[in-house]
Amino acid sequence: MQPRRQKRLFAILLVIGLLTGAVAAMLYALQQNIDLFYTPSQLVDGLGKDKIKPQVGQRLRIGGMVVAGSVKRDPESLKVSFDLVDTGPLVTVIYEGILPDLFREGQGIVAQGVLQDATTIKASEVLAKHDEEYMPPEVAEALKGIKHVPPSQQQPASGSY
Amino acid sequence: MFKWLHPYAKPETVYHLCGRLMPWLMGAALLLLLLGNIWGLAFTPPDYQQGDSYRIIHLHVPAAIMSMGTYSAMAIAAFIALVWQVKVAQWSVLAIAPIGAVYTAIALITGMAWGKPMWGTWWVWDARLTSELILLFLYLGVIALSGAFSDRQTGAKVASLLAVVGVINLPIIHFSVEWWNTLHQGASITKFAKPSIDPSMLWPLLISILAFKILMLALLCVRLRTAILVNEQHRPWVKAMAGD
Q1: Dihedral-angle region of residue A106 (phi above 0 means left; psi in -120 to 50 means alpha; beta otherwise)
Q2: Does A139 touch chain B (CB under 8 A)?
Q3: Whole-number Å distance between alpha carbons of B133 and B63
Q4: Do A137 and B185 touch (CB under 8 A)?
């Protein structure tokens, strides 16, 4: 290789190497700020090495699975409350508004709101999270035992369930 | 070792090679695009959770995968252009950037259209969405930088440097859903694991991905030929072809 080309090659590799290092250091330092949401265990046990817990009144996002049987709806209004779980502790979310179509028990959701006490969040927005598995309804029924009901044949939801 | 590559550094050879390949690539791309998209959008079964809304995956995933694939191709061309100063590689960088920018825009727009009915929001600043938006800005930056200097050579060099440096973003996009909590789900197709998408939906998706890849090459051929003609317009071989 010509010395001139070799010099350029090393110069460019050096630039890439240094920038990769800089970006890696930045992402490492910002690790906890890049996460979109707290999980229930992070909220209760604290985050990272220093076990930093969010303060009451802080705006935050919480993400977890909706606990089966925990969804309580107010028959008079759009108020709803439900529990979220990941691996351990439960966190309660209260919300008033229309939930996304994918919201159901056992589904992952992300809620944004204000921390009211250690394990309660008053949410202003609830988003549904779905996983990367896609399959036809028959396969889902065979594999997971999820019975698919077309929207036209669904029973209207009544009261709390 | 790379002696066999040397003829391809000559613009005239590349011009004629692209001319010969282009009709085949374009034909194959259109055929596969129609096959993959019609199969995927109309003839696959609905998803057990998302119903028919998931079908936009057949546009979203190919565009997203190829937005990154196109970027790596552009970065490799930029690297060759910077180190070995091959003119054809230099022109390829500028020929490829708008194609990648359009793919990235398609991935972002279809992703937003998918996010609204399923997640409940058009946009959320999670790691995957933000890093893909940065990819769009990198493409636009390469295009803008190349035109920002009165001397075209300098502009092309600076744009190439940005293209090479921006490669850092690719692993960040890819691993963003594993490194951080995101609203975006993980990858359905990975090289090592069994795909977590049913075979009846996987095949049209793979065909669409291949179609986007070949379409990128076909468009690159078209744009590179134009770039070669513009840059070599005073050379004898171009003048001979134009008939003066």
Answers
A1: left
A2: yes
A3: 13
A4: no
Helices assigned H by DSSP within B39-86: 57-83
Number of structural domains chain B divides into:
1
| Residues on chain B touching A31 (C-beta within 8 angstroms) | 180
Q: Which domain holds residue B210?
A: 12-243
Q: Does B203 touch chain A (CB under 8 A)?
A: no
- Predicted confidence (pLDDT) per residue in B35-44, tens digit: 999 999 999 9
Q: What is the pTM (predicted TM-score) of this model?
A: 0.89
So where are chain A's domains?
Answer: 1-34, 36-146
Mark yes or no for CB contact A102/B57 under 8 Å. Answer: no
Residue from B76, B87, B102 nearest B163 by CA: B76
B4: in domain: no
Best CA proximity match to B22, nearest among B231, B232, B235, B226: B226
A3-25 pLDDT tens trace: 888 889 999 999 999 999 999 99
Chain B residues 72-101 with CB within 8 Å of chain A: 79, 82-84
ipTM: 0.80
Rounded to 5 degrees, φ, ψ at B137 are: -65, -35
Task: Find where tokens 């076990």 sit.
Answer: A51
Cα dihedral B234, B236, B241, B244 sign: positive
Q: Which CATH number fits domain A36-146: 3.90.25.10, 2.40.50.140, 3.10.620.30, 3.20.20.100?
A: 2.40.50.140
Q: Is A122's Cβ below 8 Å from some Cβ in B? A: no
Give the Å distances, CA to CA, from A48 to A23, A29, A88, A93, B158: 20, 12, 17, 23, 40
Go through B116-131 and write b for each residue having 16 or more CB atoms within 10 A of its CB, e for each that does not: ebbbbbeebebbbbbb
A96 to chain B, any CB pair closer than 8 A? The answer is no
Is residue B62 in a domain? yes
